[in-house]
Specification:
Blueprint lengths: L16 H20 L3 E2 L5 E3 H7 L5 H6 L1 E4 L6 E4 L4 H10 L9 E10 L11 E10 L4 H17 L6 E6 L6 H14 L6 H9 L10 H7 L11 H16 L5 E2 L13 E7 L8 E8 L3 H4 L7 E7 H10 L12 E5 L2 H16 L4 E3 L6 H10 L4 E5 L1 H6 L1 E6 L5 E5 H12 L1
Parallel strand pairs: 1-5, 7-8, 12-13, 12-14
Antiparallel strand pairs: 2-4, 3-4, 5-6, 6-11, 7-9, 9-10, 10-11, 14-15, 15-16
The chain binds histidyl-adenosine monophosphate.
The site of histidyl-adenosine monophosphate (HAM) has 28 residues, from strand 6, strand 10, strand 11 and helix 11.
């Protein structure tokens, strides 16, 4: 049979133990943070009805247009999508389980894998990990400010500095129409100078044109009408109040009139948190979010004003690694169990369990019979307390405890072993 070399699919990657130390640090930090701010954890399926995303994220967004992994069920009736993001599924779960009947707001957090068929490059994967949080059923501007604060605090607690926050308001159903009209008029007047992508978007999703990275387009777009000038009074007051809260909290931010985000469900506040790109290509936008008051209506229910954010775990990990920030390292074993002979191996297994029950982290090399190999592992791990059981000790239900530094050895009964080890480890 021909030899096949299997690799992870393009744009997907293994999270190896050397990455896990950062993933674990992030999980520990978010768990503590969300607990403090009164969020509860939710998990939704990896697969959702594809229509959930086309309706909520929007048919004319990159995510739905180009990036969704869709599969048909065996019966061929349902089109299911590997979730590209977490907000729409959480709103689906909120509505499906009648969470609107509980005292509001409902605060939920999550983490897990997400899928977007993007062109793989640094910081852009086809399967990536996000953590996120959503406050459902609250229209107050203080929620927007706290969402930004929490997203900022987590990065800060991970030791990431040099963070910048960009904020914009993209209005609501009342005022965005007027702005869209003005923008389309402007884009039409510049149609001979804009790139092909912008021309296409000015017809399908004009606000997304503001996000174009092409330098020539950027120059032209600097002259474009700005949404801030078109906000209705309610949206203006909301934005002003969000910014005032942030000022009070001394959270640094800049207003970015071009920030629109790549998902259609947003209303009013949108924001992104980024760090400058580093030498290894790490950095860029680490987290983003905003308010989405009309998402539930798009899904066929009454308005559930909500706000939330999500962050890309790989992007955070690459910043942590490049900046040599701390991860969570596994605790080292304190005791090594070595055995010589079949009966000693049996006793060794039992002793290992005794230590586990006593909460003493131990390790062993049961698969090797040579004492030399076993002791050299204990040495490599820098373990000072070694338990040695030979055939003679095993027959007497005794063990030898050896202090590796002094070379001193003493014999104790298996019954007394845990007590003796505890005293030595003190
Ligand atoms: P998003 O901006 O699409 O928002 O994604 C959030 C974060 O996920 C990004 O800032 C980025 O760090 C990371 N990310 C996105 N795509 C990729 C990728 N292909 N590879 C690696 N990392 C990626 C959302 O998903 C919204 N659901 C956020 C939200 C929650 N809005 C309200 N609530």
């Amino acid at each position: 049979m021909a030899k096949i070399k299997f690799q992870t699919p393009s744009g997907m990657h293994d999270v190896l133990p050397q990455d896990q130390i950062y993933f674990q640090k992030i999980y520990k930090t978010i768990e503590k943070t969300f607990d403090f701010y009164g969020f509860e954890k939710i998990d939704t399926p990896i697969l959702e009805n594809a229509d959930l995303f086309s309706r909520s994220v929007g048919v004319n967004t990159d995510i739905v247009e180009k990036e969704m992994y869709i599969l048909r069920t065996k019966e061929g009736k349902d089109a299911l999508a590997l979730r590209p993001e977490g907000t729409a599924p959480i709103m689906r779960a909120y509505l499906e389980h009648g969470l609107n009947t509980y005292p509001q707001p409902i605060k939920l957090w999550y983490h897990g894998p997400f899928f977007r068929h993007e062109r793989p490059q640094a910081g852009r994967y086809r399967q990536f990990w996000q953590y996120g949080f959503e406050v459902l059923g609250d229209k107050e501007s203080v929620v927007d400010a706290q969402t930004i604060l929490i997203a900022f605090n987590i990065l800060n607690d991970l030791g990431i500095n040099n963070i910048s926050i960009r904020i914009n308001s993209i209005g609501d159903e009342n005022c965005r129409g007027e702005y869209r009209k003005a923008l389309v008029k402007f884009l039409k007047s510049k149609k001979n100078s804009l790139c092909r992508d912008c021309l296409r978007r000015s017809k399908t999703n004009p606000l997304r044109v503001l996000d174009c990275k092409n330098e020539k387009c950027r120059e032209i777009l600097n002259e474009a009408p700005q949404i801030i000038d078109y906000l209705c009074d309610d949206c203006k007051t909301h934005l002003k109040s969000v910014l005032e809260y942030l000022e009070e909290l001394k959270i640094p931010f800049t207003l970015d009139p071009f920030l629109v985000r790549g998902l259609d469900y947003y209303t009013r506040t949108v924001f992104e948190i980024e760090v400058p790109f580093g030498e290894e290509g790490e950095g860029g936008v680490l987290a983003g979010g905003g308010r989405y008051d009309i998402l539930s209506k798009v899904l066929g229910k009454t308005n559930v004003p909500s706000c939330g954010a999500a962050a890309g775990i790989e992007r955070i990990v690459s910043v942590m690694r490049a900046r040599k920030l701390e991860g969570v390292y596994a605790s080292l074993p304190k005791v090594f169990i070595s055995q010589i002979g079949p009966l000693a191996k049996k006793k060794g297994l039992v002793i290992f369990e005794e230590l586990r029950k006593a909460g003493i982290k131990a390790t062993e090399l049961f698969s090797k019979d040579s004492l030399k190999a076993q002791l050299s592992k204990a040495n490599r791990l820098n373990i000072n307390t070694v338990i040695i059981i030979g055939q003679k000790e095993a027959l007497k239900d005794m063990v030898i405890i050896r202090d590796m530094e002094t070379g001193k050895q003493s014999e104790v009964s298996i019954k007394e072993m845990v007590k003796e080890v505890k005293t030595r480890l003190k």
